[in-house]
Amino acid sequence: MGIVIEQVGPTLAARLTGLDLTKTLASHDIAAVDSGMDRYAVLVFPAQALTDEQQMAFASHFGQLEGNAGGNITKPGEHRLPPGMNDVSNLGQDGKPLARDDRRRMFNLGNQLWHSDSSFRSTPAKYSILSGRIVSETGGNTEFADMRAAYDALDERTKLEVEDLVCDHSLIYSRGTLGFDDLTEEERAAFRPVKQRLVRTHPVTGRKSLFLSSHAGAIEGWPVPEARAFLRDLVEHATQPQFVYVHRWRQYDLVMWDNRQTMHRVRRFDADTVRDMRRTTVAGDGPTYQEANAA
Ligand code: OGA
Ligand code: MN
């Protein structure tokens, strides 16, 4: 069974068939997935009914997994999934949709804002791998924006302006945008801002991309309102339809994206129906910016 890769989006995103992800992959298959990611930044693997263990094993082919701590407000005893799985569903431990005003649900609504996973961590995510175990019938599409194409389309003046900028990223900013600021002192401490470069260079292809995210809330050396207005302009530019692939989920789709080269968001869906999405996340190689006095 040979691997077939067909482009499905405008400048990014391809469908990959011919691999059974329940099995341990051969090194040439891993290399083919990696090079597909380098080129398309989003890969869709249809009809992959994986267990959590198989999904974690697949993700581990590409590097160290991120744990599920630090990125949400779920308390230690409240996890529905094992460590190593990020629960992106709308469900509580009882398998039922969370109440409309449940704190965890309100926090997770932040995924409806354009973002790059874990840009609020000093080492942000490399790949995210999302499995649609139970998908929405109406709404709940996931959209992906190509931040390389967005960078390429900037005018020369703006390219020069953004080249060396450094932003502060925090979950406090993204959730604050939606008016959610009901955080404990402990959560605030865990979510303190980290620095990220605004322009990144892909280590394999050498292509530059804009590293934007709803978590970005300040630019080093800039007045905050000016920084936020500029970041909004850049997000508006980067998410024009010619840079966006819209994924309409089918059950057991597995979608893998490169957070270094894309942003994504989920669209609104019916709060009363089950949407069981499970993510494994491969950590990046290191920080995008070295602070002079970093500990
Ligand atoms: C994620 C995410 C989008 C979705 O898993 O990182 O943002 O469609 N999810 O649930
Ligand atoms: Mn996400």
**Tally of DSSP β-strands:** 15
Our estimate of the beta-strand percent is 15-25%
Order of helices and strands: EEHEHEHEEHHEHHEEEEHEEEE
Instruction: Identify every distinct bound molecule in the structure, by name, code or SMILES.
Output: N-oxalylglycine, manganese (II) ion
- Just give the CATH class: Alpha Beta
Low-confidence stretches: none
Instruction: Summarize model confidence as the mean pLDDT.
Output: 96
What does it look like?
This protein has 295 residues and is α+β, with helices and mostly antiparallel strands. It has a single domain, classed as 4-Layer Sandwich (Double-stranded beta-helix). 24% of the residues lie in helices and 23% in strands. The chain has helices at residues 27-40, 52-60, 103-108, 147-152, 156-162, 171-177, 185-190, 224-238; strands spanning 4-7, 14-17, 42-45, 86-87, 125-134, 142-146, 166-169, 194-197, 199-201, 208-210, 216-219, 244-247, 254-258, 262-266, 276-283. It is globular and about 50 Å long. Manganese (II) ion (MN) binds at residues 111, 115, 117, 264. The site of manganese (II) ion (MN) has 4 residues, from loops.
Summarize the structure.
The protein is built from eight helices and 15 strands. With 295 residues, it is an alpha+beta fold. It has a seven-stranded mixed β-sheet, with helices on one face. A three-stranded antiparallel β-sheet has the order 12-6-14. A three-stranded antiparallel β-sheet has the order 8-7-11.
